[in-house]
C-alpha cells in the first residue's frame, strides 16, 4: 500500500491501471481521480466509457497474454485493477510474482473468481457454504447427465461469462441442446464448459457489498458490510436494484456470515487482499444460498451512487489505496436501467429533462460508442423515504428517456423505451426486519463509524438440498 499519493502525470504519480473500462470502470476511474491518482484505462474496443475520462487509454485484447503483459510493462502501474472477466489471468499471476505491480485483490484471487467453477468449488467444497446443487459439463450429453442429478428446472451457464450471456433456464430434456449451443456462443475464453445449477425458488436475491479495507484503529484488514441491495434480473442481467432490501435478522445474519467467509477466503494471506466484493445470494424464508462473487464493484451497486455517503466505487478506490472506508447509508433508493433500444452507433437520448423532473432522480448516461437493443446505456438513480417510492421514481424516469438514431439514413423518430414487466414488490418490512432512518435534508452526517473487523463466525448453517442463476457488467 502507498504511504502517500503522488501528483498525476509526474514521475512521482500513484498510478492505477484498470483492465476493463465499461460503466463500472468509468466510475472507479473518477473515484481514483478525485483522490489524485493517475489512471490508465484498458479495454478491447476504442472510446469505451472509461477511456473518455482516464488520463491515458489503450485498446488491447486482454485475453492475449503477450499483449496484456506488454501494456503492463509499458505503463508500470502501481496497481492493476481487473474490472472484467475476459483477461489472461495467468499474466496477472506472472507480473505479480515478478514484482512488476500489485494486482487487486491479488492475482490468484482474480484468477479464481473469473471462473464460476473455481469460485463454486471454493464456496462448496472448501467453505461448505449453502449453494444450489450443481454439476459441470463439457458437452450436450454431459449436460443431459447433469440434469438427471440436479433436476428440472435448472440453469445452464458458461463457466466464464457476464451479464447473463449464454445463460438459459432449462425446463425439460428437449431444451438441453438449445441451452448448450447458447452457452457455447455466450461464453468467454472457456466457452466449451458450463455449470448446470439446480433452480432455487427464492423469495428475493441480494448483493451484499463487502469491503476488505484497512481498519484505521488497528492498521489491519477489516471486513465491512453495506446495507443489502435487492435486485431483479431478466435473462441473467439486472434491470433494477434497490437499497436497503428488507431482511429478517436471521437472514441478514446468514448473509453476512456467508459474505464474510467468502471474502476472508479470497482475502487471506495466500489469495486475496483489499477492495470491494459483490457477493450475490438467494434468500428463501430465512435461508441464504451463495450464488456468485465479483472481486470488484457490482452492477447492482450502481444504486449506491445515490444511497450511500460513499459509493461502491469510492470505497473500492479507498480500500485499494489503504484508506479508511465508510459504509453509512444516507437514504433508501433504487436504480433502473436505460437500454439502447436499437442497434447502431452513436445514438442520442431524448426526454432527459422530463426524466430528471421526476422527484429525487439522477441519470448516468454511460457514453458507450455503440448501442444494441438490450445493451445497458445508462441508469436512473432515485431516492425517497422508502424503497417502494424510490423504485417507482426510478422506473418512471427510465421509461421517459428515449434513445433515438443519429444516422442520416435512419428514421430519427424516438424509439420507445423497452418496457419491463412491473416490478415485483420486495418483501415488506415487518417487526424484526432491517430498516433505515433517512438523514433529514440539511442535517450533518454522523461521524463515520468504523466497525470492528468481522469474524468469519460459525458455518452458515447445514447444507440444504434445495434447488440458482446471476450476471455482471453489461459491456
From TrEMBL:
Q: Cite the InterPro entries for this sequence.
A: ATP-grasp (IPR011761), ATP-grasp_carboxylate-amine (IPR003135), ATP_grasp_subdomain_1 (IPR013815), PreATP-grasp_dom_sf (IPR016185), PurT (IPR005862), PurT/PurK_preATP-grasp (IPR054350), PurT_C (IPR048740), Rudment_hybrid_motif (IPR011054)
Its catalytic activity?
Answer: N(1)-(5-phospho-beta-D-ribosyl)glycinamide + formate + ATP = N(2)-formyl-N(1)-(5-phospho-beta-D-ribosyl)glycinamide + ADP + phosphate + H(+)
Tell me its EC number(s), please. Answer: 6.3.1.21
Please tell me whether the keyword Protein transport is annotated for this protein. Answer: no
- Any one Pfam family here would be PurT_C
Keywords annotated in UniProt: ATP-binding, Ligase, Magnesium, Metal-binding, Nucleotide-binding, Purine biosynthesis, Transferase
Q: Give this protein's Gene Ontology molecular function annotations.
A: ATP binding; magnesium ion binding; phosphoribosylglycinamide formyltransferase 2 activity; phosphoribosylglycinamide formyltransferase activity
Task: Give the record's GO CC terms.
Answer: cytosol
> Does the record bear Magnesium in its keywords?
yes
This chain belongs to which protein, by name? Formate-dependent phosphoribosylglycinamide formyltransferase
Q: Which gene encodes it?
A: purT
Amino acid at each position: 500500500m502507498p504511504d502517500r499519493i503522488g501528483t498525476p502525470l509526474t514521475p512521482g504519480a500513484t498510478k492505477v491501471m484498470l483492465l476493463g473500462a465499461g460503466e463500472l470502470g468509468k466510475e472507479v476511474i473518477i473515484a481514483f481521480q478525485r483522490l489524485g491518482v493517475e489512471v490508465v484505462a484498458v479495454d478491447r474496443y476504442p472510446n469505451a466509457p472509461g477511456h473518455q475520462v482516464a488520463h491515458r487509454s489503450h485498446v488491447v485484447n486482454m485475453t492475449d497474454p503477450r499483449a496484456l503483459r506488454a501494456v503492463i510493462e509499458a505503463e508500470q502501474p502501481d496497481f492493476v485493477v481487473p474490472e472484467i472477466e475476459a483477461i489472461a489471468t495467468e499474466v496477472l499471476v506472472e507480473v505479480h510474482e515478478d514484482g512488476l505491480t500489485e494486482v487487486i485483490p491479488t492475482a490468484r484471487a482474480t484468477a479464481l473468481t473469473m471462473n464460476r467453477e473455481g469460485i463454486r468449488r471454493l464456496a462448496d467444497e472448501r467453505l461448505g457454504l449453502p449453494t444450489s446443487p450443481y454439476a459441470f459439463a463439457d458437452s450436450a450429453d454431459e449436460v443431459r447427465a447433469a440434469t438427471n442429478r440436479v433436476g428440472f428446472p435448472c440453469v445452464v451457464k458458461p463457466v466464464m461469462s457476464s451479464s447473463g450471456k449464454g445463460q438459459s433456464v432449462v425446463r425439460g430434456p428437449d431444451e438441453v441442446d438449445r441451452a448448450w449451443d447458447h452457452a457455447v456462443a455466450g461464453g468467454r475464453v472457456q466457452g466449451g464448459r458450463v455449470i448446470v445449477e439446480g433452480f432455487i425458488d427464492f423469495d428475493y436475491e441480494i448483493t451484499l457489498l463487502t469491503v476488505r479495507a484497512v481498519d484505521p484503529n488497528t492498521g489491519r484488514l477489516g471486513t465491512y458490510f453495506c446495507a443489502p441491495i435487492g435486485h431483479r434480473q431478466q435473462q441473467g442481467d439486472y434491470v433494477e436494484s434497490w437499497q436497503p432490501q428488507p431482511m429478517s435478522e436471521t437472514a441478514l445474519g446468514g448473509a453476512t456470515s456467508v459474505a464474510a467467509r467468502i471474502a476472508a477466503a479470497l482475502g487471506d494471506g495466500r489469495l486475496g487482499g483489499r477492495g470491494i466484493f459483490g457477493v450475490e445470494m438467494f434468500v428463501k424464508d430465512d435461508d441464504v444460498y451463495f450464488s456468485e462473487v465479483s472481486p470488484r464493484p457490482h452492477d447492482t451497486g450502481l444504486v449506491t451512487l445515490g444511497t450511500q455517503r460513499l459509493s461502491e466505487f469510492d470505497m473500492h478506490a479507498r480500500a485499494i489505496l489503504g484508506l479508511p472506508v465508510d459504509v453509512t447509508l444516507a437514504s433508501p433508493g433504487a436504480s433502473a436501467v436505460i437500454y439502447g433500444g436499437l442497434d447502431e452507433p452513436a445514438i442520442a437520448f431524448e426526454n432527459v429533462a422530463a426524466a430528471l423532473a421526476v422527484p429525487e432522480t439522477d441519470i448516468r448516461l454511460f457514453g458507450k460508442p455503440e448501442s444494441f437493443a438490450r445493451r445497458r446505456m445508462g441508469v436512473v438513480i432515485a431516492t425517497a423515504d422508502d424503497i417502494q417510492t424510490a423504485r417507482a421514481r426510478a422506473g418512471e424516469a427510465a421509461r421517459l428517456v428515449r434513445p433515438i438514431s443519429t444516422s442520416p439514413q435512419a428514421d430519427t423518430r424516438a424509439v420507445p423505451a423497452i418496457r419491463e414487466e412491473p416490478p415485483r414488490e420486495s418483501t415488506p418490512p415487518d417487526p424484526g426486519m432491517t430498516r433505515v432512518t433517512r438523514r433529514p435534508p440539511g442535517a450533518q452526517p454522523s461521524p463515520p463509524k468504523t466497525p470492528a473487523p468481522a469474524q468469519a463466525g460459525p458455518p452458515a448453517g447445514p447444507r440444504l438440498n434445495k434447488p440458482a442463476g446471476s450476471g455482471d457488467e453489461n459491456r
